[in-house]
Amino acid sequence: MRSLITRSRSLGGTFDLESRQERLGTLDQEMVQPGFWDNQDQAKATIDESNRLKGWIDPWLSLDARVSELTALVELLEEEEDIELDAEFTRGLALVEKDLEALEVRTMLQGGDDHRDAMVTIHPGAGGLESQDWAGMLMRMYTRWSERRGFGVEVLDLQPAEEGGIKSATLEIKGECAYGYLKGRRWCTSPCSDLSIRPAVATSHVLCKRIHIPAS
């Protein structure tokens, strides 16, 4: 439990909770000013930044509150054994551990573009029809991976192959830190693990989606 408390406190310092809260307060003030919507592009950018900050702050505050609750349960259990409280503590500890690990991963995604949406292009290799089938499988892998994480997926371009599979596809993966999570991935699929003889392969490339905001 002490290790959990130390990790959660360290996490708050790692992504500088206080400065993010201050920035969120500044944005909240901007959004209630008269004329905020005069420049709709800039207003949308401000709202997006506010939502990103909340996406960091709210999970950490929730985690911190649950760690405090677990600490209180430990103190109660030290005073008197209670089967129901012990079971509640065990369940709560498992959930906090899971959420803490997820937030620790997110703290590594703080590059300038990590928070953005991602563009994924998929192409078959030189394996003909079989390679096109594997490209279709790769597209489904990205779609399912995204859906499991609550990310949206939009198919921007799709060229189906005549006999199944795809010739190419471009996906937009929408969600907080989608690019950060995906930028290190360059998935490929093949029915053979031997790189020197594999007859079919499909590859993917991940790009950052940037949005140009005109100057006011």
What can you tell me about this protein's structure?
This protein is of the alpha+beta class and 216 residues long. It has two domains: 2-107, Release factor (Methane Monooxygenase Hydroxylase, Chain G, domain 1, Up-down Bundle); 118-208, Alpha-Beta Plaits (2-Layer Sandwich), CATH 3.30.70. The chain is 55% helix and 16% strand. The chain contains six helices and five strands, in the order H-H-H-H-E-H-E-E-H-E-E. It has helices spanning 2-14, 17-31, 40-79, 83-107, 128-148, 178-182; strands at 118-124, 152-160, 166-174, 188-189, 202-208. The chain has a five-stranded antiparallel sheet with strand order 2-3-1-5-4. A hairpin with a 5-residue loop joins strand 2 and strand 3 (166-174). Helix 1 (2-14) packs antiparallel against helix 3 (40-79) and helix 1 packs parallel to helix 4 (83-107). Residues 192-197 and 212-216 have low confidence and may be disordered.
